[in-house]
Every structure is written in structure tokens, then in C-alpha cells.
Amino acid sequence: MSTVSQFLEAARQKTADSHERTAVRKAIATYDAKVADGKARFADWQNARAIAAGKKWDAINHLDRYLEQFERNVTANGGQVHWAEDSAQARQIILDLARQRGVKKVVKSKSMVTEEIHLNEALGVAGIHAIETDLGEYICQVRREPPYHIVTPVMHLTRGDIAKTFGLPATTTAEEITMLARDRLRQEFLSADMGITGANFLVADTGMIAITENEGNARLSFSLPRIHVAITGIEKVIPRFEDLALLWPLLSTSGTGQALTVYNSLITGPRPGGEFHVILLDNGRTSLLADAEQRDALHCIRCGACLNVCPVYKSIGGHSYGTTYQGPIGSVITPHLRGAAEWSHLPYASSLCGACTDVCPVKIDLHHHLLHNRRNAVRQKLDHPLQRMAFRLWLWAMQSPARYRLGGKLAAWAGHLGFKPPRNFPMPTGQTFRGWWKKVGQASRLSNSEKSTRETRVPLE
Amino acid sequence: MRLGLFIPCFIDQLYPRVGIAMVTVLRRLKVDVDFPAAQTCCGQPAFNTGYWDEARPLAQRFVEIFSGYDAVVSPSGSCTAMVRNFYPELGVTPPPTFEFAEFLVKKLGVTDVGAKFPAKVTYHDSCHTLRELRLKDEPRQLLRHVRGLELIEMDQAETCCGFGGTFAVKFPVISYAMDEVKCASIAKTKADYVVSTDSSCLMQIAGYLQQHNPGVKTISLAEVLAAQ
User: What is the ipTM, given to two decimal places?
Assistant: First the structure.
């Protein structure tokens, strides 16, 4: 099945799944309340967004310089930086590192980039056991499902659903479920040879990586095994250590409504006797960088705010997209990262309501980029030929008032003959404003003496 | 001041009463308007579907048609946003163009148009009016001055109704699911009417209400303001 057909079918099923839609609605309602409180802690949220966007603009527009600075500093700190052009290269780097060191077991903390490169499958094929240690991701792994959301992987599940996943009675409490996962995962942490994490920020001027989390599992993942491999997209670099003072609370506020997440770690190099590797992934990001119009999509700090506010996401859920990154940001970047030919339906699957753009903490012009992607798809002739013909005919009709009026009359006749438009939208009746204006409106225009003096005072800019 | 009226194509064809109501209110305020009959569509359907080359000639046409006017006023936030915010993306400089409520409140300085509409209403923020034109309070100011009108805010006032032009036709299932959420929020207010600056949203909302909640009616802001 094509990506479009899969999307349409998934959307049809998910919009009808009231259990899942209710779970998502409740989760997002809780999030909304926390985020409102979180934003109120900022003296000026809008100003904070503007400053953060400025920092990311600087980073992205001088990406070459900051990435090389980051590499130099990581190397000086005793770590090693690897550059991966695409998913295959990134997987190969990790597999080579693992094989050369005889790694049998890997513990992973939450990382969307490892989802992007399908790392777990590759490790599995190579006979390396990979265990997700973020509770949400662990539940996904047990269910053999991709994350539903970039921040909240099992947003769509109720406590009862999760209990069922673990074969527990529906009455099991959240604490009991967590303790079960904790018991299982502790053993894995202690026996793993390698820890794989993502990174929320790459700090250029110190060569540190910053990891934001709430469960402490990332700390255990990078500190217990001897080898730590962090993999992340090149867009995560930030110029200065001090930038975290804003970007950390901004990420946690937009991500979960927390002032700061429970754990924030900075990794400066390998632990004594250990190894520290950072893999910097391109995988299409430089093609986005080359697009001056949409370059700001690389500002993204993966907070998930645009998903949570999106009425389309809330209706169809995270799995329908079929992408690593769901929601508005996913529909903006996926055609760039994975090819417009297969993914151009996503920018069209939006009412362009703009709620995403308003909440984005780093001011990505999300909904306008959806428009740009639509225009790009037409320019690349990825549109349906019939649709193209229809719009050309429509333009021809709209360029002449006579043809426009005729079109309206034809539609009215079709309506009288019983033609039904899509959904239950109305058809023209033949009564038009221009008809009224010609007969009635025009004749009763105001004379100069009747006009108010008010309008002469109107400033028109 | 020469004020030109832009009546979006779907209002001309489907909801002429909205345009008539707007003219009625402006005349009551002794503001003269003209309707250049050569106008057709602003080009938004093509623009939003990615056909910028097909939208551009209509943008240029719009500018020529309204070149003899000092300003343009329109009963649609969506089409106003197309002209004001998106014509520049097509390389076309738009004439000063205002949404009706915006024109009344911000340009004429009027919040009481002498209307009377004894009913409970809730206001739906159209996405383009709210997030492209940044008009949130202006329509509400006008509603608050209507005699007999009780304005009840819904919890999801700013949530999209799910119309989105060709989106509603290309993805009817998603559009309908969004409509459902919007109408549930409307129903909770127990209002008699849903009011909006944009008749396209109201068309979408009415589609759901007619089937599931026929007691609630839709009405444009212009019609409420014309009522006496």
C-alpha cells in the first residue's frame, strides 16, 4: 500500500477509535493545564521564545562553525565524534563499535533519532540485544509499536491498557507497573556493555552533550555500561553553555510544563576507563539547511508542543502519520528528510489553522512551511494531473466575471437537479450578492451629503 | 474615502445575505461602499493547494480592480488574510484590506453599531481571523454592544473547526472529526447561535450541527450586527 493510502486508512480507523481519542484528549488536557502554569513562571514568555529562536538561528546559520567547534572540544575532552551522512552509515558506525568491543547487550534511553535510523532492528539482526529503558519506550518495545508521540511515547494508552501489556490485572496501580518495569530494567542496566542515548543539546563551546529526562534511566544508561554512544541530529548544536539557562526551562515548559525536568545531565567526556562516542547524523538535514525558506525547521528542540496543540494530531493520533516525527513538525520536515514524492500528502493533511506556529517555543513558521511544501510539491509535479487541470480551468473561469457568473449559474442548476456537493455543504441557489447589488444595493448608495464625516478620519495603514 | 467592497466568491454564491448585512451596517453608520462588479475570487483555493502560479494572476487582478479605492473591506477574515498576508508571498503588493469587524473597531472606532439580537450566542474564532490577522477582541467588543445578546464563551473557541478549504474535501474523515470536537464545545455552552467572522467556518459547523444538534444555528457576525 502507498504511504498515502496507509495514511488515509489509518486516519479512518483512528478517528473512529473513541477509546484512544479519549485517552489522548485526557493526556493533552493535563499537559495543557501544566503548560499554562509553566508559561506563567516566565516573566515574558513571548520574549523568551524570541531569544531562544535567535540562539537557534545563530546555531543553524553557522552550523559548520559550531559543529566543528563541538567536535574539537569533545575530542579534547577525550571523546570521539563520528559523522553519519545517512541512516545506514549511522547504523554501521554503531554496529562496528559494538562488534569490535564484543558488545552483546545495549541499554537505550529515549531517542527519536534511533527510531529515525531504525537502530533496534539493525542491532537485533546483528544479534545484539537492545533494551529501551525509558518507561514509555519500554512499553512501546513490549508492544512492538513505534512511539505515538516524540515526547510521550504511550500517550494513547490508559493505565489499564499498560497493565494488560504486561499481562497484569486491569486494577494494577501505576506504582506497581513502574516497579515491575524497574525490577526488570535494573538487571539490564547492570549487565549491559553499551549505553546508547540521544542528546537534547550539543554545547559547542564546551564540547558537552546535554540530556533531559525524568526517570533517571538516561543517567544509568550512560554511566553504568563502559561504553556510551550518543547519537543525535546535527541541528541540536547550540553555541554556548550559558544558552542552556534559557533552553532547558524552555524545553521542559513546552514539553511537559515542568520548570525543569527531574534530571538534566551534562556529559563532558568518557567515565574513567570508559569510552564516549557522539554520532552526528545528517540524514537529509542539510537539504533542509539548504532551503533558506524552511531552514528554521532545524530550530526544533523536539518538545512536542506542536503535536499537542494540533487538532489533526488529536484526531488521527501519532501512529497514522507513519513517520518518526509526527504532527506539524513531522509534516514539515518529513518531505525533506524522506522524499517529497512519498510524503507530500502530509503537508496537505492540515487545515492550516496555525495553532502550532503560535506555540512553538523556537518560533518555527510551521503552518506556513506546510504551505511552502504544498507549493514545492506542485512545482515538482507531484500533484495529480487532474487536480492541476482543474485549477487551470478554475483560473480561466475566475479571470472573467462573465465566466465566473456562468459557473455560479451552472452550479445552481446542478444543485436544482439534485447534485450533492462533498459532505453536506450547500450548493449555490442562483441568488447572489452581485445580483442584489445590481438590482438594489447600487441604487441606494449614499449621496455625499449623507456620508459621515467619520470615515474621513480613518487612518488606513 | 472610496471604500471598495470585496465579497468572497463563496459568500457571493452561497451566503449573499452576509454581504448584504455588511452593506446594511455600513450604511447605518453613514459609510458609503462600492462593489466593483469585475471581482471574482481572491485566489486562496489555488494558493492553499500549492498552485501559486494559478493564484498569482488573481492576486494581480484583485489589485487592479481595487486600484481606484482607498481601502477594501470584506466579510471574511480568511480572504482578508489571503490578500494582506499572502499576496506579498506571490510578489503582489495588496491594497489596504480589512476584515469587517476589524474595519469597524480599529478603523472607524465603532463598537456599538446599534444592533439588537436577543439570543444566547457563542463566538467561534476563525483561524485566519485569530492567527493571521490577530483579531480576538474586536469581534467580541462588537457582540458585547449588541442589545439583548448574551455572549457565552466556549472552552474551545480558538480550536479549528476543521474546514481548511480543500482540506475538508481531501481529508473528509479528519475534517469531520475536528468538526465533532468543535461542535461538542459549542453544545456545552447551551447557546442558541454560533457566531463567526467567517462563513466558511460556519458552513463547516452547520454541516455537523444540522445532523446532530439542529437546535443550534449558525449566523455571521455581519448578520448579527445588521439585526435590529
Answer: 0.97
Average of per-residue pLDDT across B193-199: 98
CA distance B144 to B121: 11
Contact criterion met (CB < 8 Å) for A446 and B27: yes
Which of B31, B57, B167 lies at the smallest CB-CB distance from A351? B167
CB contact under 8 A, B30 and A454: yes
Nearest to A354 among B38, B110, B127 (CB): B127
Domain B116-226 has CATH 3.40.50: yes
The answer to whether A102 contacts chain B (CB < 8 Å) is no
Asked if B3-107 and B116-226 have one fold, the answer is: yes
Chain centroid, CA A128 distance in Å: 29
Strand-by-strand arrangement of the B147-151 sheet: B147-151, B116-123, B193-196, B217-220
Fold (CATH) for A51-287: Rossmann fold (3.40.50)
Contact in structure between A433 and B20 (CB atoms under 8 Å): yes
How does strand A208-213 pair with strand A263-267? antiparallel
A157-167: average pLDDT: 95
Question: What are the residue ranges spanned by the domains of chain B?
Answer: 3-107, 116-226
* B46 with A426: Cβ contact below 8 A: no
Phi, psi angle pair for B38, to nearest 5°: -75, -10
Architecture of the domain defined by B3-107: 3-Layer(aba) Sandwich (3.40)
| Span A51-103, pLDDT tens digits | 999 999 999 999 999 999 999 999 999 999 999 999 999 999 999 999 999 99
A290: left (phi over 0), alpha (psi -120 to 50) or beta: alpha
| Longest CA span, chain A | 94
pLDDT tens sequence across A340-385: 999 999 999 999 999 999 999 999 999 999 999 999 999 999 999 9
As a residue count, chain B comes to 228
